[in-house]
Amino acid sequence: QVQLVESGGGLVQTGGSLRLSCAASGSIFSINAMGWYRQGPGKQRDLVASITRGGSINYADSVKGRFTISRENANNTVALQMDSLKPEDTAVYYCNAHISRRGLPNGYIYWGQGTQVTVSS
Description:
Blueprint: E1 2-7, E2 10-13, E3 18-26, E4 28-39, E5 46-52, E6 57-59, E7 67-72, E8 77-82, E9 91-101, E10 107-111, E11 115-120
Parallel strand pairs: 2-11
Antiparallel strand pairs: 1-3, 3-8, 4-5, 4-9, 5-6, 7-8, 9-10, 9-11
């Protein structure tokens, strides 16, 4: 079994900062990629940022220059530093990971439970 547990969400004012963290645990052979998605009220779930095992990083255009994704490989964690937050960043943020499990031939997609980020004007 694999679990992804997020933390760090909350309520901030416009221009403020938050740091999200996601920890993966379980029967993990390797984590091929990790990322953050978000889903606002009545909206689809969209990619915010991702990072691969090799260090390749992608950001949504809307967060470039404001958000930074990083990975702590030793602890199977990924963080999202969010600066200069805007009301349009308000959403539930979900950790995502593509993980190869020990003893199994294929990798699978796993999701965290989500953490609420609210940015007030």
